[in-house]
Each structure stands twice: as structure tokens, then as C-alpha cells.
Amino acid sequence: MRKKIIAGNWKMNKTVEEAVELAGELMRGYAEQTAVDVVLCPPFTSTKAVSDVVSESQIRLGAQNMSAEDGGAFTGEIAHGMLKELFVRYVILGHSERREYVGETDGEINRKVLKALEKQLRPILCVGETLEQREAGTMEQVVEQQLRGGLQGVEPSAYTELVIAYEPVWAIGTGKTASAEQAQEVHAFIRKLIGELAGAEAANAVRIQYGGSMKPANAAELLGQPDIDGGLIGGAALDAASFGGIIDAASEA
Ligand code: 13P
Asked: pLDDT of 95-114, one tens digit each?
């Protein structure tokens, strides 16, 4: 059985004070909860403060990006060692917003995935098609290319650490969720592809999150699908009650 994983991607939201408040509210309900892996990914400016709030709890910390470099003259970048110093365990890589606005390529994302794994950080590798690509019928091709590119050189044994997030771009922040059936179909496709890339054991072990307008009202149905192992949550993660509602749905799924 794969343990469900619910991660909040706070994106470019929350001051330090607001981040501490939200983490504190979640601590009141979920500090000792172990049925589901819960991960908070605040912006870098709040990482240290949130780390202090959730330390000694079951809530884990994630980052929204990481450099593939170890350190040095890379203005504006954050290295793995800086994240590990703050007890960050997970790192979101290849989010569609970074692919689109910063122009991150599969090759760059792959270097980050390999670096994260080498340094014992768990990558959350994001993939997903745009509305245009879905309508053109190239959805599977797009997702396959992102996965083959992003996962090059990943050892089969690493798939227990790695998380994949399927985030259809047309469902992100739009209020349009993929139906449970649509999402399950792509998740099953991704798991089959991992089987081809890394073998049956890896395919069975890898956790695949759904992301895109997940909220308490639709979480149970999505998380009840056989190949949906969690959620990567944007908007609904900014509020303790709605994020908590999704965690509750995951623990009952
Ligand atoms: P929303 O939940 O706001 O649609 O965002 C999803 C997402 O991009 C999480 O990484």
C-alpha cells in the first residue's frame, strides 16, 4: 500500500507572519497525524520560520524549487545544502509555472531531480499538459516526454523516494478540476510508463499526486482512485480549514 501524500504548494503567497500562523493552525490539528504524509512548501523567505514551527512534528517541509548546482556564483538560486540545513525533505521540481514563466526545460529539471536524489531530498516532479495539448490529442505524448526527460538516469530503487505530480495546466488555479475518471486515466498511464522505464517494483512504489483545483469537496473522489496517491494543492493549501479537509479526505481514502 502506498501512503497518501498531501503537499501544499504555497507559491508566491504569505508573509513570514502569515506563514507561521498557517503552519501553527495546521500543527493544532495534524502535528501527530501519521496516516498521511503532510508536506508544506512555503516560499523561501518563510522556510526557516515554518521549519521552526513544524520541527518535532509529523509535518514535513518542502521547497518550491532548487538549483542543480552545489553552490557558488548563481545569483538568486538556492542550493540543496541550504534546504537541508533548514530540514527541508521534499522539493517541487518542474512545476508548470516554472516551465512556462522561467522556461525550465526537461533537461534542466532532470539535473535537479538527480541532484535532489543524490542529496537525499525527495523530488516532487511535476508534469502535465496544457488545454491546447489536451484538445490536440497530444496529452500522452507531452506527459511521456516530460517523464522520460525528467527521469533520465534515475535508478529503479529511487522511485520509493520520488513523487510525481500530475498537474493538468488547464486545471491549475482555474477552478476546473479534472474529473476523477480523467485524472485516474492519466495516473494509470504514468504508472505504466514508470513500469517501462524502471520495472514493475518501481511502478508499484512510486507515488503519483494529482494537482489542479483540488479542494475538500472533490478530494475524496479523486483520492479514492486506485492510482491517485495524494494531492499537490495550491489555492486550497493557503487556508488551514480547506487544507485540513483534504488531509482528512486522504486519511479516509
Ligand atoms: P491549484 O490547487 O491552485 O489549482 O494549484 C495547483 C498547483 O499548481 C499546485 O502545485
From this structure: 999 999 999 999 999 999 99
